[in-house]
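Annex B, item 7. Sequence and structure tokens for protein A, then protein B.
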Amino acid sequence: MSESVLWLDDQAITAEHLLGLLRRQGQMPSLVRELVLDQALAAVVISAAEEDELLQAFRSERQLESEEGFVGFLQASNLNEALLRQMVTRPERVVRYREERWGPRANSLYLQHKERYDLVTYRRLQCGNTDVMQEVFFRLKDREESWDSLAQQISGGDPSATSLVGPVPVGNLEEAVLTALRQQGPGRICRPIQLGEQVVVTELEAFQPSEFNDELRTRILREEFENWLQEECSKMLSKVTYRA
């Protein structure tokens, strides 16, 4: 007989019932993600003083300085203090884990994928009507109208509409758009590109090499962490078995 792990009033909820609910609600990926994180972050050391400081910052931010307010929050959130401490220290544990695991290789990771972080500034107009975008392309190509004038027309007359995008990382662009910009070079209108239900017309302004600064370093560590986490979760999910 399955052991009860939760009670709703006088109704006992078994572990088997709870697992079934998680599966029906599609929550297994979230559960596995939490399990993977708990296992990975268990070895990350945070001192008692740091933990107290993070908890106090959380209480101040939520205006829970009074003990009565704090206890009320825990009850309303179905938490106890131990669980809350795990929650408020999680972000710091993640930062330290990322730094320990990938920090020493951040510069080499940047050099390995440098092109991904280079920046691009370009013009872009899009809508779902192929005929309209063909007309837009020829008007731009023949210099009959400006980019921003057409942007306002496509947006329905919004005076703040603009065609200028960037500078943004080249990794943010669709592969077809990036390829067209590189092939055409600055100042040449790219032919309309079909992207799903949208048709896009673009023109390159400039490519700008990225700089390995603190902001980019943090981004690289975040990306490595998320890629690792997704891979670990996929592995774990593929190995999940359920009792018949």
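Protein B:
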Amino acid sequence: MAELADRLADGEVSTEHAVLAAHRTDEAYLVPSGWPLCAVYAHSTADVVETMRWATEHRVPVVPRGAGTGLAGGALAEDGAVVLSLERMTAVRELSVDDRLAVVEPGVITADLARAADGHGLMYPVDPGSAARSTLGGNLATNAGGFRCFKYGVTRESVLGLEVVLADGRVITTGHRTTKGVSGYDLTSLFVGSEGTLGVITGATLRLRSKAVGPRATVAAYFPDAAAAARAPLALARDGLTPSFLELIDEVTLRALHAWQPLDLPGDGVALLLAEFDGVDADRAAAETGRLCGKLNAVATQVTTDEAESERLLDIRRHALGALERMGRTMVEDFVVPRSRLGDMLVEIRRIAARHDVLIATVAHAGDANLHPTLLFDRTEPEIPARVWSAADDMFRTALRLGGTLTGEHGIGTLKRRWLRDELGDDGTGVHQTIKSALDPLGIMNPGKVL
């Protein structure tokens, strides 16, 4: 380790037990992880370059890491690996109002960039549930989405270019800082969502947008069940209504929230659809959404432009996982189906829960039919029970059968490797392996993830 430490310009190397224990896992805490050789805290691209050169020379695996907020096991350590922490690379290198972009390092917290952009009359729209803790590097690695992706897109739609350190220490830049550009292959899109398996992202040029003008407006619509609520997003789209926030909370989740912090619900067993609109016609769009939900047999609706009340309503969704975690251990999943099949998938989840005797609570980014079922089990269980894995298997295969995909924003990581070939097919998997081998011939980049 002394040799590696000597090669770093500003970075630090730690072999302390407490440090390694804290950096060996992410929030997929029930998935087994290895014991790393050391943790490297990079302070610059040069530190990452030297770490990768050293790892290549010694054929040591490297696990890039941000804040450890991932839910798919994408940052789990391997035995004998270097955990490469990027959390101290926190500079916003540039924020250009005229070009509407920011050049950032990977350790910048997502919410911090949003605040910096807001101070210049701009917005960074990517808003994952972990925005207050997650790093932009982690968002880039998983192509994170979040609450506002229906209107503003996932991370990839906000990336203009990247700085990437390859497995052998070479540094490349991808993309551009212009609004248009098609020179060469789209390597930016290749690295976004690659989960640290192809290279280490050490910088990103991100697109900023103009802040929405005027007050926001929020709609809360309660339906008899989640499948009934799932009809509303399709109706909104047909009427040309595009909320910035469109979330569905099923009956199980709403009961958990109510048990934790009592809510003013119109009855037991209801599901909730939350919509928020921004922009100059937000109040008109919200009022129309309220009327539309009433026509779709919502049992109660509320429309507000009051800022405090809007925050209270949106916090119902933001606090969902915390309420569920009070009930037991959780396995949070992530998949997407075609918008037209959201209701069908919600019905199937209820059947799967009954079939495998597993309590499943579901929230969804309803605008793009990205579901997050949470499978609950007893805290005394030392590992994920077989019936929970069976229920997860049933859900993923059902999502694929309905024309969906295994992940919308959490990534494949370790948790979903077993199902990836089912989606990609043999030839598609082979192409992925060819790309991986070309960029990482020694297989040292985040081994055991994705493929």
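Comment on protein B: The first strand starts at residue 12 and ends at 14.
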